[in-house]
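TA notes. Do not distribute before section.
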Amino acid sequence: MARPPRSEDLESTLLWITTGYRVFAAAWLTILGIVVLASKSTEVERPAVVVATIGVVLAWAALTTVARVVRPGLARTWAFVTLDLGLGVWSAIAGTVAGTIQFAGGYPLAGAFGAIFAFGTTGGIIGAAVLTTAGLVPVLARRDSFSQEVANAIAYIFSVGAATAVAAVLRWSERRRVAAETALATERTERARAEEHAEVAAHLHDSVLQMLALIQRDPAATPDIRGLARHQERELRDWLFPDTSDAALQGGGFREALVQVCSEVEDIGPAKVELVIVGNTSAPVEPIVRATREAILNAQIHAGVDLVSVYGEAAVNEVLVFVKDRGSGFDPDAIDASRHGLRESIVGRMERHGGSAEIISSPGAGTEVRLRLPVEAST
């Protein structure tokens, strides 16, 4: 599989462009310098300055080209950028020092481009300021080429500004591309894991979960065996089919507490507890959770059913729980002291905490316990 492009590829390309321009500009300066020395119509007061400038520029171009291959990270150091800019400044004023016309060509920009590569926009600002100042030195020296020197300074500003903008856009685009490819690679990895998980889940569903379900329906199995089978089935289903639809589940709260209570009661009772939860809240919900536990236990003990349904909902300002069975039922108005758990642990508990408990039941028609607890709005 081919290696995906990396951001280092763009940086390497930019460094090669910077190095290539330096070599090109050095050749440009060399040709102009030779023309100045060879021209009979051009006066050169100090030809040694022209010759020395050509020699230093060519040597620096060769040295930086070798460094690009041997130590590419060197171009990102302040020492390198300072030397590069310094030589660019010297080339810009070398004609003035030599007492002749300017022969730097486009070489001063090489240092500014190196600063842009190394330090981005900061390097571009520094490079533009330094070169503009250097370009105006002949004006300060009271030479007659005022308009030409100002034109050179303006050219430096616009050239460095354009290079800075192009480099910034390229790097921004590269970061976006790398981020997109990273996200795509992550998505592919997660998809592969999900497919593998689905394969395992399908296999276990067709084997282990089926066997656990058969054990629960086997009339010969003892209550302890059926309870253990339900417990193992629930744990296996939670692992195979995790509920990730509600991000609040990770933080606990009402949902987590209700799941835990239903699981505990189901493990100790003969009936299976079927739970549906909508929403979640981190507000205090202990009274309604404890009342729910008592309602489920009553159904396990008195209803004589194989299934107890529990529905929980966390609304904006209240929490609701409905516990329902299709068992023997009873007359709520005939509750006596023998049903102390129903009277105190459910109705009394909810009223003491500002909530309410409504019991709907009749003999032979099952029972539904409706619990309501006001809570503060929670996100």
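Switch to the second chain here.
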Amino acid sequence: MLNKFHMFFFSFIFFGLQLVAGELNGGLYKTVSTEAARFHSEEYKFFFGDDNKDGFIKVENNFRYGDNLPYGYDLESKPEGANPYFFSVALPEGNYRVTVVLGNNSYVTNTTIRSESRRLMLENINTSSGEFVTKSFIVNIRNTQIDEERSVRLKTREIGKLNWDEKLTLEINGTRPGLVEMIISKDDVATIFLAGNSTVTDQDNEPWCGWGQMLPRFLNENVAVANYAESGEAGNSFISAGRFDKILTKMKQGDYLFIEFGHNDQKQTGPDRGPYTSYKKSLKMLIDGTRKKGGTPILVTPMHRRRFDENGKIINTLGDFPDAARQLASEENVMLVDLNEMSRILYEAWGPEESKKAFVHYPAGTFPGQDQALEDNTHFNTYGGYQICKCILRGLKEIKSPIKDFILEDFASFDPASPDDPANFHIPPTPFYSITKPEGN
């Protein structure tokens, strides 16, 4: 049976033949290079400038993804002034190196690029008029298929999520985006898989943010981030939904698995449910499966919720779950990032009021259709997710994880007792919003 990629591939071959014959829409797309007819190749080159470039597919403003094309502008967007837009390419799952040239001959540019479900890849890349810069990053794309008989059991909210399809989608954003060229090629780099809940996942919509979707921005082009975390998941439900089995189909020697659960495990009741029983059992299954595939597990203690006492000190709402993770790390000789402790320092550095700027706390009317205030003390906005991700990076350096070698040089260090000033923080928002709290709140 043909899957979606094969259908796109064969339709595109037909499209390419039409191009050669000059028959498509009266020659509307004649400017597309005949290289397009060989789209199923090791490298895909797109040119977004005003002219043509040899060896590149010239992308016109009216190229729409899925409109007889396996690439094009997507999600009802196109380049218009300073507005963000989306560009998609139909590809089978895997890791892909994306190299972009940014700039413009006539004006200064500012470009931020996200991939898939709002993973931050490049942040505020500035060029002066006539200046061009080249940047590369790795994007992981995937589908739900585990084997011929099984698929990942998605939640209703995940249906249509950009993380779960066989296409690579890039969001081109910024005060004046300056995308000129894009080259996409398959790459067999190391992969960091993420297993976790809503505090880790790629949140699709503003103003929500998991720390996992910030991680690619701080890593070089020699590693991919595959974020399998999902809102509402506990360790055991993550496994039973087939998410870990899917990871294992892709994991190879030299890959990594970050494991952060606790917020939802804590809510489970019944016999043999608790931090030192069911929780540790689930984490151990993830550890053992990863090691069997030649990967390296790294435990992450769950971060605190935003709850202060009368003295401005954090109240532990997670019981013994952080200690259970620490205990398991010691028993199994697993590297551990103590995010629980770093988040305590971070929140107390902010204090009760300033910490609201890192969480989803917004007055009514901030977002379309929002008639009530948003007050969420578990989930972060982009600024908060960015700061928590920096805690993760600090932890990786402290424990001397091999992942430290993938961290970009512009991350020198981070002290959770001295977080970044939110007044100086700006990443342009994605044009999609939701006032529905993630599952697991």
